[in-house]
Amino acid sequence: MRSIKTPRENLKAHIIGMCVKQKMTVKDAAKRLNLSERQIKNLKARYKEYGVSTMLHGNCGRQPAHTIPPEIKERILRIKEEPCYANVNFSHFCDDLNYERGIQISYSALRKLLTEHGIKSPKKHRAKRPEHNRRERKEQFGEMLQTDATPYPWFNVEEKYALHAMIDDATGQLTGLYMSENECAEGYFQTLKQTISTHGIPQSIYADGLKLFFPMQKPTIEEQLEGKQWGSSQFGQIMKQLGSHLIHARSPQAKGRVERLWDTLQSRLPVEFAKRGITSLSEANAFLQNEYVAQFNKRFGQKPQNESSGFMSRPKGIQLDTLLSIRYTRLVDNSGCFSLDNIVCQCNIPNILPKTKVEILINLRLGVKVLYNGTMYSPTPILDKKKRQVTGSSVSSIIAQFVFDNCLKNEHSA
Fold this sequence. Notes:
Layout: H1 7-20, H2 26-33, H3 37-50, H4 70-80, H5 90-99, H6 107-116, E1 145-152, E2 161-168, E3 174-180, H7 185-198, E4 204-207, H8 221-225, H9 234-242, E5 245-248, H10 256-276, H11 281-300, H12 320-323, E6 326-331, E7 337-340, E8 343-346, E9 357-363, E10 367-372, E11 375-377, E12 380-383, H13 393-408
Parallel strand pairs: 1-4, 4-5
Antiparallel strand pairs: 1-2, 2-3, 6-9, 7-8, 8-12, 9-10, 10-11
């Protein structure tokens, strides 16, 4: 027979023994032990039949089955000391232990272990705000995407880079992530390209009032006939060609899905980059597109109300590298040249007639191209704005400047 282990069990055995010996009434025993009279009678019967050992709980003296072994606790604490986990929040650390380190532990158990050793989560929880009505999620995956970009020191150094994202409103799944030096047209082109290549064309995109999306300029006559109050942007024209809609979010709260995404990514991505030794934009973009988007969606994605996809298939003949470009229309002069940003360029199109219209396409993938009758040509800068001859390395530098000014510059300083 095991001995009584706790003061509570000692007291229970003593009180029930007094009842059995008729030195205390059932009513008084129930008050002393904070039990019902029926429970006291059952305990008396068990005491008479089996003795004082029945006052013990069945698991008394046993270690709980879910107790974390000391060696596992030590391993967890050693992992937490690794430099890459210096700023990890508890939820992210728990995910890594469960899925990458093979240590199965609940969030609450991990939090208790770490706080007992004086470790605090770097992620601060905001004070609870008054409840307000939220817009209902869309029903279908692809019905509406929210897009935005944010600068942040992603590589745990002072220098900030802009991360562009597209996230589905119905499921909370990422459809595209791209990092660049600035919030720029190329960043949004790349996230849209990832989205279309993987899923299809979204029915609509919800974006803020950046001039890239909604320029404050007078509409053309054609746009006025359509009832538009402002001229459409080049990004808007691309969306129109795809059969998709561009919706203006009037406040950060309106696109709360993507705004809340930044809290998650700013907490988790620097840890993921540090674990893998990622310190450059090219390495970051390869990891984001090839690994992280799928990891994020598996961890945070939800099922939509309507499981049929709302994404549309890409129309035949649309080449994304050509479509996702900054475009200008120019007239070719008598010498087969056009002007772009005060630079005279030879279009290099054989036998082209004067006053012929050509399209200039600019993006990071193509550089600068001239599109004429469905064929692309590489133009050559020949004169700068001071009418000086352009030769040698200055040709490539001018092309690079065209790309930067149109696709890579910070859209907030435009």
